[in-house]
Design a protein that fits this description.
It is a single chain. The protein is of the alpha+beta class and 182 residues long. The protein has two domains: 93 residues, Orthogonal Bundle (Hypothetical protein yqbg); 80 residues, no CATH class. It is built from four helices and eight strands; from the N terminus they run βααβββββββαα. The two termini are 24 Å apart. The strands form two sheets. Strands 1-2-8-4-5 form a five-stranded antiparallel β-sheet, with no helix packed on it. The protein has a three-stranded antiparallel β-sheet with strand order 3-7-6, with no helix packed on it. Strand 6 and strand 7 form a beta hairpin. Helix 2 packs across helix 3.
């Protein structure tokens, strides 16, 4: 199963003003850098947790339907199935009614289920099924669990203080592991 980001989050879990306040930056010279580092910190937390912090849209690509009808989806939490299609042997897509899918929004990794007999079989051997999902905790930073926002802050601060330096990926603050292990 592959997952491809279709629509990234519209905002970050920290506003530029919040990020600058946390970093104690009082000038505007580094605004672009702080915004980029905030986005990178969010992406790293998402990669480590396999969760989408803010609402975003992903495409899950499958070769075949699972025998038990349970599709394990990353990132989680899954909010809804917004579109689905199956390709025939000539590569022509056929839409699938999204109402046949059942989403477990609390599961991590995400679970999307369907009765195996309810969906048409793909006609091509590889990438015959595409499911577009909306996932994330919500649209605002207030929707994101506080430990994950704190992890973004710590990664942001570490990256800002050590910008331009290269080193091992595990050089980030050790406290991050505890914050993202939920």
């Amino acid at each position: 199963m592959a997952a491809v980001l279709l629509v990234p989050p519209a905002r970050e879990p920290l506003t530029l003003a919040d990020a600058k306040a946390y970093l104690r930056v009082e000038h505007d010279d580094d605004d672009d850098l702080v915004a980029t580092l905030t986005s990178s910190a969010r992406a790293e937390v998402e990669a480590r947790t396999r969760r989408a912090l803010l609402t975003q849209r992903w495409r899950v690509v499958l070769d075949a339907w699972p025998a038990d009808g349970r599709i394990v989806v990353n990132p989680s939490p899954v909010r809804e199935v917004v579109a689905a299609r199956v390709y025939d042997e000539s590569g022509t897509p056929a839409a699938i009614d999204t109402q046949i899918f059942v989403v477990d929004p609390a599961a991590a990794p995400g679970i999307v289920s369907l009765p195996p007999w309810a969906a048409p079989m793909p006609g091509r051997m590889a990438a015959g099924i595409e499911i577009d999902i909306e996932c994330g905790y919500g649209d605002t930073a207030a929707d994101v669990p506080p430990p994950l926002v704190e992890a973004v802050r710590l990664l942001l601060a570490h990256a800002y203080e050590h910008r331009g330096l290269s080193g091992p990926a595990d050089a980030a603050p050790a406290r991050i592991a505890g914050l993202v292990a939920r």
